[in-house]
Each structure stands twice: as C-alpha cells, then as structure tokens.
Amino acid sequence: MEHQATEPLSNKAFRSKPRNSLSAHGEPMIWITGGALCLCLFMIIGLLGLVVWQGLTSFWPRPIVQITTLSGDHHLGIQSREESYRVEDSGLEPRGEPRMRRMIRTGNYELTNTHFTWVDDDQIETIAWPEWAVEVERQEWGRFYGVLAASLHRRDRPESPRERDLRNVRELLADFAQSHPGELPAGWGEVQTGLDEAMRTLSGAESKRFANDLTVPAGARVEFVLESGERVPPEEYTGEGIILGAEVRRPGAAAAMAQFELDFPKVRAGVESVQQLQKDRIGAINARMEAARLDLRELELELSHEADLDEEVARLVDVQRSLYELGQL
Q: Do 112 and 91 share a domain, yes or no?
C-alpha cells in the first residue's frame, strides 16, 4: 500500500488582507470634527496674520511722493492705496475700460480742508520723491507734509541785571499805585515818567550792545525784532528802538535739518515737562478746587437754612405786631 506524501499547506494561503476602509480607523464624525477644527484653526491663524500684516503696513514709514498732474496741480503726501474703476461709476459717459487711480494722503487740513486726494493715473504728468520732504504728526489738524526750505531760530536778547532791578522797581510802584490809589504822594507821575525814561535809555544801550556782539553764521540771514513789532536787518538798524531778539534764518534743507536735530531734544524735553506738570500738579489743583466747591455748597446750604429761620422769625414778629395792634383796638 503506497502512501503519497502531501506538502503542508502554507499559512499564507489562509491569511486575509486587512481592510483599509474609513470605518476601520474610526467613526466618520470624528474625522469630520477634526477636519473642521483644523480648518477653524487655520482661519484664525490666517486672520491674525492678516491683522498683523495690515498693522505693520499701516505704521511702517512710507516714502513721500510728489505727483504733478497735467493741469499743473501738485500733490505731496503718502500713497494710501490704488484701485481700478470704470468711468460709468463716476457718472461720466461710459466707455467700458477700467482705469487706475491712487489715493494720496496730502494732510495739511488747515490749508486744503481735506486729508486725502484721488489722482487718476491718466492725469499724472510726473512722479517724484523729494529728498527733503518731511511728514509731521501734530496734535491738532492732523499730519503736515512739506519740503524743508530753511531754518528759523529765535535768539532773545538777555536781560541785564540793571534792567531786571529797574523792572522790579517799576512793577512794585505800579502795584502800590493800584492798591492805594488815594494815597499817592505829590509828584508820583514825575517819578513814573522818570523810571520809564531810564528804562528806555538802559534798554536802548543794551540793544546796541546786543547788536554789536551778535555773531552771524555763514550764509545766514539775520533780522532784529523790535519792541514795536518791526523786523530790521542789522545793516539798517540805527540804534533807534529796543531790540527784543534776533531771528536767524539759514536757507537750505540740509541746514534746516541740522538745526531741527539740534533743537528737537530741547523741545521734546520741554513738552514732556509740561505734560508731566499737567498730569501731577493740575490734577492736585483740580482736587482742591473740587473740595472747595463742596465746602462752598455746604456753606450755601447752611446759610439757606439760617435764611429760612430768619424769615420765620420775621413772620412771627409780624404776627405778634398784628396781635398787639388788635389788642389796642
């Protein structure tokens, strides 16, 4: 009896492949919820990125452009945006062709009564970027745009010790005359006139000394500011009139910028000191004024109560007088 050998069956013949369906990895709603969450996170991150980008572009300094139109108008400022439009949108005869225009922030509201100006591209003749164009942010009237032309610096004439002493004497006598108008001695007017003449003579001498000692920078123009309000060049000043100070004008954008960089720290320190003074001292003054107002109101209420009592007493006195008169009858 013959036996035929049989080969063992391989295990691979009975092994089934795993199923890669969606239901084998989880519920469909879980995948939908996860996808929606990822989409929401992506949208939030994109929105935050857009806000940051728009904020950076808004506060990032932009070049100042000067646009000259075909009609001869000049627009100096910063280009805010650019857009396309069709002619029929503006109410003109429709042509069907889109046009480009740009919005220029021109500022200078106190001069132009507008902050922005639209300029059509087909009306532009030249576009330039001035080297010395400046933008100034002001607390009032908004931004100011312009081109540096010159620097104007005011030098006040210093007051001498003799002028200061004489001015104090005049102020003291003026206060006495105002507070004691009926007690002025004889010859008071002559004394005041003599003091005024002495003050004018002394101020005139100090003005001549100031004019002689003034040093003028190279390429600068100087004008003396007189007490009368006139402005006189040094070569035309004859010694007549009291000088309050001198205005030094240096033409040129470079000189103006150099003077600005020299004076700006002092001006900024002065503004900060004034703001600090307003914040500290004025706040304390307002608090004291409010307390004084409340005290005054309380006193008014007390006085009004006393006034009511006085009226009641007067009424009772009248009643008593009337009763007495009736008794006499």
A: yes
